């Protein structure tokens, strides 16, 4: 793992919301082809970290480098353009679009045609669109949502909507995925399926940064874990190391579902 | 794929057939005079479908559509009524003439008049409307909901006040004696009784072309980005859509549609007045889009055609503006997603299933 240069370098990332110190000088690296989990109690600052990485709001200080590009200061759409795609803790799907269109939205950064080409329905834009559909269809098959492709997303079950969000992020063929509690709201069966899929993604060589509360899932899939508490990083290491870390056991794992 | 494309354009074919049928009916029933209001409805529909893209599809409410309509109408009203006859030796007229941009014609009073070709003012109208939409859109489209509604309404009010307070725009009287727009050697856009049928077909042909462009857009990558930004702006942003830019572009497209509509209407009517830029006119466009089903260009077209036709025929009498206001209030209260939309059929079916079929089971 350490033989590779890190894909993402997070350096002293810090965030204040008024007087609340939500994230406090957190640093860690993510190496290509690995799965890194960020865990911590509710309100620990995990989603805030994600929002800063993805450009949803700027950090108070600190920086994020991705592929040697400075992400800090970029808007979310630019971050996506760098190949860093996210899902949301509180599902954000487009209810007014079909399943297929939601997933094609994830393909946005891989096509070029603009408004003019769209209005004139140029040959190039049609070829591009057909290619986009061809490229995302395997994802729908993989997630077993092909039959629903023309259904409005709002009519799907919660678990299926989570699948759509995952497919949407994957449609971009991302260099790295940010998954914010992908198992939240899923039943046991769905969670197992998700674990299998994440392992498959890892086998394909994808790099993933994941926030998750389901401890067995986290211990199962992660190469490395970062533990946050009250915005501070209190531990970092392999699942085994984290499971045996006394501070972690005391303030986090001890009291909860581990 | 080809089959999909054919299916996509089926409504266009139906519209073309309906336009033909309506004309035949007026011919047979001897009510050709109705074509005047139907032609004017077409121009209003053009502005309404433009707004439909902004409001229905992209989810950005604009209460200033009449302002852009007025920009198009007044641009050509001013530019094509400047008489260069006595100033032909000047530098600018000579330059324009060398570019074949001047037209000479006899006025109704028997004088000759030399004026700028409306082709030039059409381009000017489109460019000015696009520029205004860009300048207004960049700051204003950062707002959401009623703040955006108020800001765009403010833009509309400014245009209305400028028109009313500027001599060059004819103040409360507007601008009259706008010459016809000669599109082809044998056809012009004007209110001339003899070419009423031609104008009817021309207006709806332009609407059909507009509809084809919009259908294409809706089914394209950019159209999907537009709709996504309505569904979840954060999701669109996170997937790489430059939402700020997308909003400004669709706002500009909507403005250009309105300006083109204002341009043609002004040549058709031979003039334009300040009421075209009023807030009540903007409300009208909004209520047509709402009753048309919001994200539904065909519903907007249908309702725009019917309601404008009835309004222009004077069916609503003194309540003309009130009718559109009431429609808007009712839609907002009872069907905030718009009236004519697919889900309405599901609602009705569910209602029938529950109330009627269930009762039958007992
Ligand atoms: N936009 C915001 N404005 C103000 N405070 C915020 C904002 N976002 C988060 N916070 C606060 O920052 C702290 C960290 O929140 P965050 O959502 O990052 O926690 P989390 O670790 O993701 O928790 P959870 O496990 O519940 O998702 C919380 O106290 C939260 O209330
Ligand atoms: Mg969170």
What do you see in this structure?
The complex is a heterodimer of chains A (258) and B (362). Chain A has 258 residues and is α/β, with parallel strands linked by helices. Chain A has 2 domains: 1-83 and 176-258, Rossmann fold (3-Layer(aba) Sandwich), CATH 3.40.50.300; 102-173, no CATH class. Chain A contains 10 helices and 10 strands. Chain A has helices spanning 46-53, 76-81, 99-106, 115-120, 123-142, 158-170, 188-203, 215-221, 239-244, 246-253, and strands spanning 8-17, 20-30, 35-39, 61-66, 69-70, 84-86, 176-180, 208-211, 224-229, 232-237. In chain A, the strands form 2 sheets. Chain A has a 6-stranded mixed beta sheet, sandwiched between helices. In chain A, strands 2-1-4-5 form a 4-stranded antiparallel beta sheet, with helices on one face. In chain A, helix 3 (99-106) packs parallel to helix 6. Chain A is globular and about 60 Å long. The two termini of chain A are 27 Å apart. Chain B is mainly alpha-helical and 362 residues long. Chain B has one domain (2-80, 117-361): ABC transporter involved in vitamin B12 uptake, BtuC, CATH 1.10.3470. Chain B is 69% helix and 5% strand. Chain B has 14 helices and 4 strands. Chain B has a two-stranded antiparallel sheet with strand order 1-2. Chain B has a two-stranded antiparallel ribbon with strand order 3-4. Chain B is globular and about 75 Å long. The mean pLDDT of chain B is 91. Chains A and B meet through helix 2, helix 3, helix 4 and helix 5 of A and helix 7, helix 8, helix 9 and helix 10 of B. Bound molecules: adenosine-5'-triphosphate and magnesium ion. Residues 46-47, 89 of chain A line the site of magnesium ion.
Short précis:
The complex is a heterodimer of chains A (258) and B (362). Chain A is α/β, with parallel strands linked by helices and 258 residues long.
């Amino acid at each position: 793992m350490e033989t590779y240069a890190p894909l993402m370098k997070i350096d002293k990332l810090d965030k204040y919301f008024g007087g609340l110190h939500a994230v406090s000088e957190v640093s860690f690296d993510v190496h290509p082809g690995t799965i890194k989990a960020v865990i911590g109690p509710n309100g620990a600052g995990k989603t805030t970290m994600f929002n800063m990485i993805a450009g949803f709001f700027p950090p108070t200080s600190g920086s994020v480098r991705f592929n040697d590009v400075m992400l800090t200061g970029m808007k979310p759409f630019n971050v996506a353009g760098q190949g860093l795609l996210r899902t949301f803790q509180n599902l954000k799907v487009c209810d007014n679009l079909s399943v297929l269109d939601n997933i094609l939205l994830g393909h946005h950064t891989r096509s070029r045609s603009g408004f003019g080409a769209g209005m004139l329905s140029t040959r190039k834009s049609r070829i591009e669109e057909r290619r986009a559909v061809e490229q995302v269809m395997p994802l729908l098959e993989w997630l077993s949502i092909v039959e629903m492709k023309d259904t409005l997303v709002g009519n799907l079950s919660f678990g299926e909507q989570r699948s759509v969000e995952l497919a949407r992020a994957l449609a971009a063929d991302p260099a790295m995925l940010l998954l914010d509690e992908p198992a939240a709201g899923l039943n046991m069966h769905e969670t197992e399926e998700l674990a299998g899929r994440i392992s498959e993604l890892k086998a394909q060589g994808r790099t993933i940064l994941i926030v998750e509360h389901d401890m067995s899932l986290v211990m199962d899939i992660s190469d490395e874990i970062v533990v946050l508490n009250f915005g501070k990083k209190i531990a970092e290491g392999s699942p085994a190391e984290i499971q045996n870390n006394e501070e972690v056991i005391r303030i986090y794992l001890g009291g909860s579902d581990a | 794929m080809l089959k999909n494309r054919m299916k996509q354009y089926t409504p266009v074919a139906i519209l073309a057939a309906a336009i033909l049928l309506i004309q035949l009916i007026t011919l047979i029933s001897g009510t050709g005079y109705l074509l005047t209001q139907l032609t004017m409805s077409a121009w209003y529909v053009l502005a309404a479908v433009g707004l439909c893209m902004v409001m229905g599809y992209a989810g950005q409410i604009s209460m200033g559509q009449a302002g852009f309509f007025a920009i198009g109408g007044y641009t050509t009203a001013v530019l094509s009524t400047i008489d260069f006859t006595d100033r032909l030796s000047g530098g600018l007229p000579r330059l324009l003439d060398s570019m074949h941009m001047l037209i000479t014609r006899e006025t109704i009073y028997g004088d000759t008049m030399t004026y700028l070709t409306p082709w030039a003012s059409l381009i000017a109208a489109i460019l000015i409307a696009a520029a205004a939409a860009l300048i207004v859109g960049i700051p204003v489209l950062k707002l959401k909901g009623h703040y955006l509604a108020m800001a765009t309404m403010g833009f509309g009010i400014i245009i209305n006040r400028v028109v009313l307070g500027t001599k060059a725009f004819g103040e409360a009287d507007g601008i009259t004696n706008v010459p016809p727009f000669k599109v082809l050697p044998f056809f012009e856009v004007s209110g001339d009784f003899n070419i009423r049928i031609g104008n009817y077909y021309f207006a709806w042909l332009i609407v059909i072309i507009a509809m084809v462009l919009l259908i294409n857009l809706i089914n394209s990558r950019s159209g999907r980005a537009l709709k996504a930004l309505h569904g979840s702006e954060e999701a669109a942003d996170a997937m790489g859509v430059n939402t700020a830019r997308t909003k400004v572009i669709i706002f500009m497209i909507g403005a250009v549609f309105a300006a083109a509509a204002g341009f043609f209407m002004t040549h058709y009517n031979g003039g334009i007045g300040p009421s075209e830029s009023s807030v009540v006119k903007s409300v009208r466009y909004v209520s047509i889009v709402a009753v048309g089903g919001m994200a539904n260009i065909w519903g907007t077209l249908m309702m725009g055609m019917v309601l404008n036709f009835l309004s222009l025929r004077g069916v609503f009498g003194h309540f003309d503006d009130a009718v559109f206001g009431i429609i808007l209030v009712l839609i907002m209260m009872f069907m905030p997603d718009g009236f004519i939309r697919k889900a309405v059929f599901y609602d009705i079916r569910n209602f029938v299933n529950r109330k009627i079929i269930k009762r039958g089971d007992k």
